[in-house]
Amino acid sequence: MQLFSVAADYHDGLEFLQHEVKSSKLVIWLGSDLGHFDYVEAATFLREQIVPLLGANDHFLLGLDLKKSPDIINAAYGTDNTKPIYYYSGELAKNALRRINAQLQADFNLAQFVYDAAYSVEKGCVELFLKSTVDQMVAIHALNLSVTFAKNERILIHTSYKYDEPAIVQLAASANLDWKGQWTDEKRWYSLNLFSVKT
């Protein structure tokens, strides 16, 4: 067995493997990054960016965060402002504004935004927002742009979609993949899913 470590984005890394490795491959994507796409976008990404780079004898091992009790998900994302994780989740979310300030010469006042997140059972995802605490205007100088925010208006920072069996079946069908198997932790909070390309 040969192991290849490639520093690249998903597409370039798989393209490298497609050209450099002629034997069958197991492509492993353990993180739950696919959850940052909604279900349609996730299937489109796999179908258009990943599947074309897999051969008929290749396999794809994909980590997916599974649906679970909203209380468990909300606790993991720090939605309770009485818990320490709320502070850390908020600081992580505010990093987006820090980056915009630094890279686009903006003047977001981080003290005027609070972290606001919740799991939507209907959507099957956690939505992370920063909510404006006042009416304000922010200048983004590099874009010659001013943006106004009303009090309580929110900026969507991040989404994290969770999966269950029907969602995985739909993902596989939409992405032109065969779902070969699944391994989970004993609580069924996280899964590793083995796929191959439909022939």
Automatic annotation (TrEMBL):
<keyword id="KW-0808">Transferase</keyword>
<dbReference type="InterPro" id="IPR051128">
    <property type="entry name" value="EgtD_Methyltrsf_superfamily"/>
</dbReference>
<dbReference type="Pfam" id="PF10017">
    <property type="entry name" value="Methyltransf_33"/>
</dbReference>
<dbReference type="GO" id="GO:0008168">
    <property type="term" value="F:methyltransferase activity"/>
</dbReference>
<dbReference type="InterPro" id="IPR029063">
    <property type="entry name" value="SAM-dependent_MTases_sf"/>
</dbReference>
<keyword id="KW-0489">Methyltransferase</keyword>
<protein>
    <recommendedName>
        <fullName>Histidine-specific methyltransferase SAM-dependent domain-containing protein</fullName>
    </recommendedName>
</protein>
<feature type="domain" description="Histidine-specific methyltransferase SAM-dependent">
    <location>
        <begin position="3"/>
        <end position="195"/>
    </location>
</feature>
<dbReference type="InterPro" id="IPR019257">
    <property type="entry name" value="MeTrfase_dom"/>
</dbReference>
<dbReference type="GO" id="GO:0032259">
    <property type="term" value="P:methylation"/>
</dbReference>
